[in-house]
Known about the structure:
The protein is mostly beta strands. Helices cover about 0% and strands about 60% of the residues. It is built from no helices and 11 strands. The protein has strands at about 1-5, 10, 20-25, 30-40, 45-50, 55-60, 65-70, 75-80, 90-100, 105-110, 115. The strands form 2 sheets. Strands 2, 4, 5, 6, 9, 10 and 11 form a 7-stranded mixed sheet that branches. Strands 1-3-8-7 form a 4-stranded antiparallel sheet, with no helix packed on it. The model has no long low-confidence stretch (mean pLDDT about 95).
Amino acid sequence: QVQLVESGGGLVQPGGSLRLSCAASGSIFSINSMGWYRQAPGNQRELVANIISGGKTNYADSVKGRFTISRDNAKNTVYLQMNSLKPEDTAVYYCNARRLVFGTPIDYWGQGTQVTVSS
């Protein structure tokens, strides 16, 4: 099992910045990737960014150049720095960790943190 604890959401004006944090605990030795998804009302959950073991990163086109994902292996924590925020970034953001167990992906989710971009 993997436990994920998120922090850092809130209300910010357009153009502002926020940093989300996600601390992992438990069976972290077998985590293959960690990342952030988001879900706005009426929409499906979508990948925002993830980082694969080895350091490769992936970003949704809508956040490229504005968001940066990083990790601190010593703290088992992944961060999402969000700059130049737009109202359309408003959503509940979920931390995700994926383990590969005999090649089968198993996903774990944080509780979600609300990000609201509004003036």
